[in-house]
Amino acid sequence: MTEDKKTKILIVEDEAVISKAYAEELRDEGFLVLTATNGRDGLELALREKPDLILLDILMPVMDGLTMMDQLRTKDLYGKKVPIILLTNLSASEEKIIQAIAKNEPAYYLVKSDWDLSGVIEKIKERLGQKG
Amino acid sequence: MSPSASESFYRLLFDNTLDGLAYCQMLFDRQNNPIDFVYLKVNKNFAKLTGLKAVEGKKVTAVIPGIRTSNPELFEIYGRVALTGKPERFETYVAPLSRWFLVSVSCLKKGTFVAIFQNITDRKRIEKDLMDAKIAAQNVLEDLSAEKSKVEAAQAKEEAILLAIGDGLLVTDEKGQIIRINKTAEGLLGRKSADLVGKIFSEEVSMTDEKGGPISPAERPINLALAASTTTTTTTTTTTGPVYYYVRNDQTKFPAAMVVTPVILGDKVIGAVEVFRDITREKEIDQAKSEFISLASHQLKTPPTTIKLLTERLLEKRVGILTEKQREYFNDIRSANQRMIDLVNALLNVSRIELGAFTIQVDEKDAGAIVQSVLDESQSAADKKGLSVKTILPAEKVKLRLDESLFRMVINNLVTNAISYTAAGGAIEVRGETRKKGERLGGKLLADNYFVVTVSDTGYGIPEDQQGRVFTKFFRADNARAKQTDGTGLGLYIVKSVLEHCGGLIWLTSRENEGSTFYAAIPLTGMKARAGV
After folding, report:
1. pLDDT (tens digit, 9 = 90+) per residue, B131-158?
2. Do domains B3-123 and B161-278 have the same CATH topology?
3. Do B309 and A91 touch (CB under 8 A)?
4. A117: closest CA among A14, A8, A17, A7?
5. Contacts of residue A93 in chain B, CB cutoff 8 Å?
6. pLDDT tens digits, residue range B361-382?
7. Strand B253-265 to strand A32-36: parallel, antiparallel, or no bridges (unpaired)?
8. Strand-pair category, A53-57 with A8-12
9. How far is B106 from B85, CA to CA, in rounded Å?
10. Distance CA A65, CA A96 (A)
11. What confidence tens digit (pLDDT) does each residue in B484-510 have?
12. Whole-angstrom Cα distance, residue B361 to residue B531?
């Protein structure tokens, strides 16, 4: 498969080791992986590279994930439609997260510490409409 | 007048005098001390006034026994007059006769005397009564003035206490007009008592909700108290109920916790009392607390998450083949790390519960399907230990309003415990069913209709004397501690707290070395929703 044909995933995550683990696992799975370490860079990269799916951390410096998602959703048609998986260690009961997800379909929410890599890959494939 | 005519005139005078009259002969001893006297002549009224009859010719000591001790002054005075001839006048009480007399005594012939007397007992009694009355009146007056100053002091003290209360205090009449406001309330509202008393509270000081929207007069706690006798109590935290903000004249505002009660006399509301205080600080702490939990949740879980992800890549041979020993070690690291994650999750859940910072978000779900899915996830752990798992769930869907993640957490805790505390080869049975009010289950009489999940095992059981404590924080039964070292002692505490917060129940039956059965019940009306922070 050429680089252009590969499915493009953007990881926006400030924890370098976590970002590395996801990125390498996804590359091993045959995805093209882009990374950013905060919401501002992530937003710029997303609008420029138009990834097929975004893995988005919530608590990050400079710009947090929820703000980035809000801005992306209002930017253009691509930004409105791109599937986003929020990856965080905040609890799902955080009201602001639930509201953000409700308002930002298609978005999905996973608690990092509860999910192993293979589970996350499966969810990504599910979101992309690929069979796991 | 002839002597005889004159004599009879005096006789007449003597006899008809209204006063008592006695003509007496004084008797002296050798030292010339008066010791007695003899009645020579008494008039008609004598008997009436003294109550003594036929006294003429008799000694007074014979007529009135005890007179010498009761009235020694009589002998002195009469003796003196009889000797000196100088008349005297005196009042005396004659105890043997129980009478008061006013006596004028004079001497016509040396050695004798004439006593003219009036019975003044009545006058004396009236005088005494008067005096008594006067004293009594004076006493009452003194008592009254003492009481008055006591009441005044008490009133001043009560006033001072009311005014000095550290909480704001405001009292209105039945129309909502302010009749009293203390210093703290003045300070909090930024208004003077003089400028508020007599005015309608809800018109003078405006109130908003948390988002700054105005609270209409009819919704104001003080008017609820006046109109509907409703008592409003707001807490100092944001987790339950509305928060009221008072707006000052300069448009600054503060959140207030308050207790507003109607004042009821007979069966009429005659006013309302509001006690309130500024909870800005508490709100800040509340906010800080929620932020702390979020932050702790994030910060504590990030390191074990990286370990989890990298260990997984190692074990999945993504970065090369591992030796058998390396594989064993990484597996150990993975399970130890998982315990760390579980412990952090449990501690965070406990904090959320204890700080009232967790949400219960209900949606209509199929309770049976959730139980099944939890069991599916636990199947491999049960298989690993060689435990048989039997599931009995209703054939049709049981639609319940549930917070799925909390319900899963409850069931998962019970199932995980059953697996952990049952020896290899044992059996676990999970049953989900609807039970009606009035039915008895596991020794409990159901007070409502419930969906009950029953998790039974053939495990170690819980010693009877420790069953009462299994739901307390950090408690682990002695036999469980001996057999399974890695429990947190938090699982059942969380389960019970969650169920209690959402209107559910948890209880158990257990016999040591035979097994335990836990019952988790959710009312068929669903979990009670609850907003977090």
Report:
1. 988 898 888 889 898 888 888 888 888 8
2. yes
3. no
4. A17
5. 352, 358-359, 361, 405, 532
6. 788 889 999 899 888 888 888 8
7. unpaired
8. parallel
9. 7
10. 12
11. 767 778 888 888 888 888 889 999 999
12. 8
Inter-chain contact B313–A21, Cβ cutoff 8 Å? yes
Q: Are residues B313 and A116, on separate chains, in Cβ contact within 8 Å?
A: no
Distance separating alpha carbons of residues B495 and B519, to the nearest angstrom = 11
| Residue B490 to residue B487: CA distance in whole angstroms | 8
Assigned fold of B161-278: Beta-Lactamase (3.30.450)
Instruction: List beta partners, residue B34.
Output: B28
DSSP annotation string for B465-513 = GGGGGTTSTT---HHHHHH-TT--S-HHHHHHHHHHHTT-EEEEEEETT
**Taking CB atoms and an 8 Å cutoff, what residues of chain B touch A59?**
294, 298
- Residue-by-residue DSSP string for B436-464: -TT-EETTEE-SS-EEEEEEEESS----G
Instruction: Give the pTM.
Output: 0.51
**Hey, what amino acid is at B65?**
P
Q: Do B294 and A90 count as a contact with CB atoms less than 8 A apart? A: yes
CB burial string B254-267: b at 16+ within 10 A, e below? bbbbbebbbbeeee
Structural tokens at position B230: 């409703």
The values of phi and psi at residue A35, to 5°, are: -130, 150
Domain coordinates in residue numbering, chain B: 3-123, 161-278, 286-355, 363-523
Which residues of chain B does A112 touch, with a Cβ-Cβ cutoff of 8 Å?
A: 301, 305
Compute the Cα dihedral for B215, B221, B226, B230 and give only its sign. positive
> For residue B520, what pLDDT is reported?
94
Summarised one tens digit per residue, pLDDT across range B155-173 is: 888 878 877 788 899 999 9
- Residue B83, both tokens: 């000797």
- Whether the CB-CB separation of B531 and B359 falls below 8 Å is answered with yes
What number of other Cβ atoms are within 10 A of residue A65's Cβ?
Answer: 27
φ, ψ for residue B138, nearest 5 deg: -65, -45
Q: Is residue B238 very low, low, confident or very high in pLDDT (cuts 50, 70, 90)?
A: very low
Q: What number is the ipTM of this complex?
A: 0.81
- State how far the Cα of B450 lies from the Cα of B465, in Å rounded to an integer: 28
CB A78 within 8 A of CB A53: no
Domain boundaries B363-523, corresponding CATH code: 3.30.565.10
What pLDDT, on the 0 to 100 scale, is given for residue A126?
Answer: 84
Which CATH code is given to the segment(s) B3-123?
A: 3.30.450.20
Q: How far apart are CA B12 and CA B39, in angstroms?
A: 19
* Identity at B19, one-letter amino acid code: D
Helix axes B491-501, B324-354, angle to 10 degrees: 40
Q: CA nearest B362 in A: which residue?
A: A93
In terms of C-beta density within 10 A (0-12 exposed, 13-18 middle, 19 or more buried), how is residue A122 classed? Answer: middle
Residue B309 and residue A103: Cα distance in Å, rounded?
30
Q: Is the pLDDT of residue A49 over 70?
A: yes
Gap between the Cα atoms of B209 and B18, Å rounded: 97
Helix (H) or strand (E) holding B122: helix B121-164
Which residue's entry shows tokens 């005098």?
B17
